[in-house]
Design a protein that fits this description.
Blueprint (H helix, E strand, L loop, with lengths): L3 H13 L42 E6 L2 E6 L6 H4 L4 E4 L7 E2 L5 E8 L3 E8 L13 E3 L14 E4 L2 E3 L1 E6 L3 E7 L5 H4 L8 H5 L7 E7 L8 E3 L5 E3 L17 E6 L16
Parallel strand pairs: 1-8, 3-4, 5-12
Antiparallel strand pairs: 1-2, 2-3, 5-6, 6-11, 7-10, 8-9, 10-11, 12-15, 13-14
Length: 273
């Protein structure tokens, strides 16, 4: 028989993962963040402007295809094992984070749509502490206790906070989507499908090449499917049977080539090997 504590915890987890939950970490000014946004935080949110290899910065910035970050393990360990302590890895040395090493990405595709920005790609993420045999994991602003994975981690873009976002990191694949604040943000950045990984949650281009595109939203957010009668069905991981196929990616246009991340790694301004 389950204890009262286990029962309450399970109810709490169900409520947190239910449709439309609001992230607790919100209203953070990227120009003036607190030292930490959450108690029990591994790192900090006042990160300064100097990159370092041992930074514990837990701010991610998605300002554009040449200025972005993602969360990764602070040490060589599994993504799920370290998701509560994940730190930021950035393309530029101005965010007080760790820097993305050269050749981390073998392909990267940045897409901006009306409801979100997303980055999809492949690479060698052992360069950012992910073991080659790791199953990967998801990071998001809520987690089972609503403190976030990582605890206190925040995502900013062009002077504003993205309250809803989701990221998957594997040894050879990466995806992240950050949604503009609004009533549909939770749908396009839903983070209750942690077992389904990148291509199911964030359909897009995972092929070679480096580009930035404008795009249309995906036809349906993750987990939502249009039935033959025209109604929308929402699938959940707990549902019996096989999961549905991934949804279609949104159409892209106005694409242009971009430079692969890593050019600042060893130029004396950050993570010099």
């Amino acid at each position: 028989m389950k204890s009262m504590y286990e029962w309450v915890l399970n109810v709490f987890i169900l409520l947190i993962s239910s449709t439309g939950v609001t992230a607790l970490i919100k209203g953070i000014d990227p120009a003036h963040p607190p030292y930490q946004t959450m108690t029990g935080q591994y790192g900090y949110n006042q990160c300064g402007t100097s990159a370092s290899r041992d930074s514990r910065c837990q701010n991610v910035y998605i300002n554009g295809p040449s200025d972005f970050c993602f969360f990764g393990p602070p040490k060589f360990a599994g993504v799920s094992e370290t998701e509560r302590e994940a730190v930021s890895y950035c393309t530029l040395p101005k965010h007080g984070s760790r820097l993305i090493p050269p050749d981390t990405f073998t392909g990267l595709h940045f897409v901006s749509t009306p409801h979100y920005v997303q980055i999809t790609g492949r690479g060698n993420f052992t360069k950012v502490n992910v073991p080659a045999d790791n199953d990967g994991g998801e990071m998001d602003p809520n987690s089972f206790d609503a403190r976030g994975n990582p605890i206190g981690g925040v995502v900013f873009g062009n002077g504003k906070q993205f309250e809803q976002w989701t990221e998957f990191l594997l040894p050879d694949e990466f995806c992240m989507r950050a949604c503009y604040n609004g009533p549909d943000a939770w749908r396009y950045c839903n983070h209750i499908y942690d077992l389904m990984a990148c291509r199911w949650n964030i359909p897009g281009d995972y092929g070679p090449g480096f580009d930035s595109c404008k795009g249309k939203d995906v036809p349906h957010p993750m987990g939502e499917y249009k039935l033959a009668n025209g109604s929308i069905h929402t699938w959940h991981q707990e549902d019996p049977g096989n999961p549905p196929q991934p949804g279609a990616p949104g159409k892209v246009y106005n694409c242009s080539n971009i430079t692969p991340p890593g050019s600042y790694y060893s130029d004396g301004r950050g993570n010099v090997s």
